């Protein structure tokens, strides 16, 4: 899913998401190699990537079932939109 995000807000949103991961999921691994990947359990994760060419953030998720992955994307897209306010 793509989330519109002004250039000047991208860094702020990425930092807020990183802080959220540490605060709300302190025992979950976070991979910051490419974006911020929050590993929720053995099969579920969410990845937030900053688009290098457009004022967008990308939200990806994986889960055991497609419906759950869609739920994760929707939930985290909503969270990212709120973090811009």
Describe this structure in words.
This protein has two helices and five strands, in the order βαββββα. The protein has a five-stranded antiparallel beta sheet. With 85 residues, it is an alpha+beta fold. It is globular and about 35 Å long. The longest helix is centred in the first third of the chain and has 18 residues, at 7-24. The protein has helices at residues 7-24, 66-83; strands spanning 2-4, 30-31, 36-39, 45-50, 56-62. The mean pLDDT is 97.
Describe the secondary-structure layout.
Elements: E1 2-4, H1 7-24, E2 30-31, E3 36-39, E4 45-50, E5 56-62, H2 66-83
Antiparallel strand pairs: 1-5, 2-3, 3-4, 4-5
Summed up:
The chain is an alpha+beta fold and 85 residues long.
Termini separation: 19 Å
Which regions contain 5 or more consecutive residues with pLDDT less than 50?
A: none
Helix content: 40-55%
Spatial shape: globular
Strand content: 25-35%
Number of strands: 5
What is the count of helical runs? 2
Indicate the mean pLDDT: 97
H-E order: EHEEEEH
Strand order of the largest sheet: 1-5-4-3-2
The chain-level structural class is: alpha+beta
Sheet with most strands = 5 strands, antiparallel
Rounded to an integer in angstroms, the radius of gyration calculated over CA atoms is 12 Å
